[in-house]
Design goal:
By secondary structure, the chain is an alpha+beta fold. The chain is built from 5 helices and 8 strands. Strand 5 and strand 6 form a beta hairpin. Helix 3 runs parallel beside helix 5. The longest helix is centred in the last third of the chain and has 19 residues.
Length: about 180
């Protein structure tokens, strides 16, 4: 088996390794999302219109998010009643505290299965361009919120994989701590 130092010399391996760079890095790409973008409100509350969650996918998302270091799930501090906040414990590192809308909540899951998350601005643009997200109406209201987006409700397991990649990217951006790629 080749050593990692040898792989770094192979161009194909380099491109594979750069694809695994945390979502806080620039030059992030996502597969194009199938189907039309869900309609959303233009103000706050910022919600999707006419989209229902797949309960099993929401449960799997919550299971995986709860397994992240320093994350506690609980009632949101900044969203609608019934939303689940993805909150960092007080001992979690905070590399980008200005990107958090309130408290230590880096993202939250709405009852309709969509999420709001603070992403690196380059990651947010890539997710929007690929059809996975839309900028939050407040994204241009304060320095640090440039990557604040709504991520659309996943309705298939393949979509959930991309949404979880975005949530892990939010975590990495906010904490500065990379996460290993996970497989379901």
């Amino acid at each position: 088996m080749p050593r990692l130092s040898n792989l770094l010399l192979i161009p194909a391996a380099v491109s594979l390794l750069t694809a695994a760079v945390p979502a806080s890095a620039q030059n992030v790409t996502f597969p194009m999302r199938d189907g039309a973008r869900p309609e959303t409100t233009n103000g706050v509350p910022h919600v999707q219109i006419g989209v229902s969650p797949v309960p099993e996918l929401s449960e799997e998302m919550l299971r995986q998010v709860a397994a992240l270091p320093w994350v506690v799930l609980g009632a949101t501090r900044v969203s609608l009643p019934g939303a689940v906040g993805f909150q960092l414990t007080s001992d979690a590192p905070m590399a980008q505290p200005q990107a958090i809308v309130g408290g230590r909540e880096f993202a939250h899951l709405h009852p309709d299965g969509s999420l709001h998350a603070a992403l690196h601005p380059d990651t947010a643009r890539a997710a929007i361009d690929a059809g996975w997200a839309v900028a939050h109406p407040w994204a241009d209201q304060r320095a640090g919120w440039e990557g604040f987006v709504m991520i659309y409700t996943p309705i298939t397991e393949a979509e959930l994989d991309v949404v979880l990649q975005l949530v892990r990217g939010s975590y990495t951006y906010i904490t500065g701590e990379p996460l290993p790629e996970t497989q379901r």
